Amino acid sequence: LLDRIMGLESHVRMTEDAEAQMLEEAVDSSYRKGGMKASISDTVSKQTVKNKIHELKFFPLQTEVASKKQVDYLYIDADEDHVSLQYLEQKGDIVKPRSNTSMPKLAYVYEGVEPDAPKSQRMKLVEPKFFGGVYEGSKGVEQFWREIYDYIESTYDITKIKKIYINGDGAAWIKSGRKWIAGSTFVLDKFHMQKYIIAATSHLLDSAGDARSELYHAIHKKAKWMAIATFEKILYVTETENQRTKVESSMSYILGHWDGIMQGLRNKNVQVGCSAEGHVSHIYADRMSSRPLGWSKKGVHQMSKLRIYKVNRGNMLELVRMQKEELPLVAGA
Fold it and tell me: Does the predicted TM-score (pTM) go above 0.70?
């Protein structure tokens, strides 16, 4: 009778709020601490916490808008993390050297940046919406970008948007977003551009500064031929094979993403810098890759989704309750 009054179904050992507390802790610390948080008088095993997280279904957060927003520009920053997996194929496999990672994707849509406080120099994103998870292969990438487009289409009047800027490091899956997001343009992240320029010149010692200045001069002059000539001069004075490989790799990267670099020089008054590296660190790496942890592919995807759900200000109790509802009901159909 008491179970019926409290709304507990048959064989249920954990209430909704206990499960929500468990998820709230596990998303930030560990499965073990999540199990400890579920009850003040008992402990849920970390295996149970893992099973609960692996079983979670995530639904699009519904945004209540009376009418679609009208903005001139939208920005999408994208990047990915590298998370270590436990086993190469199945439990017990021993392979050396061991190279076994999963790369959860992260992207967020926002309207621009503004000061965090009236007199602050620290900037914050305006109306950010985050997306993420493990989306492998061309089908996965297509699904990922479709989810982003569906959000943009349902939230903004796309006929009023002048341009959508996709900022990133030039990975193929990031640049493919232009195909799925109408009116979008790829802009190369300046952090990665500078990283490769430094890699191409660091071995030049006293002449490194001059070489970098020439490359930046070529970029600001929009003179690709000048950049090629500078790289060739660097190669001419590069002695070791290892250094030549670094220079050639940097040259290939800079020239291969020349259009993305040039796009970053146009309309600079409406463009903002890319902060994807910092967000990957804050959202993914803090929980999954900054410490020596081993994950399953399912675990990486589910934890990525749970971290995204939290950063989007999702309520854990609502997430637990949604698991019992029918998908058409949750989707608002």
Answer: yes
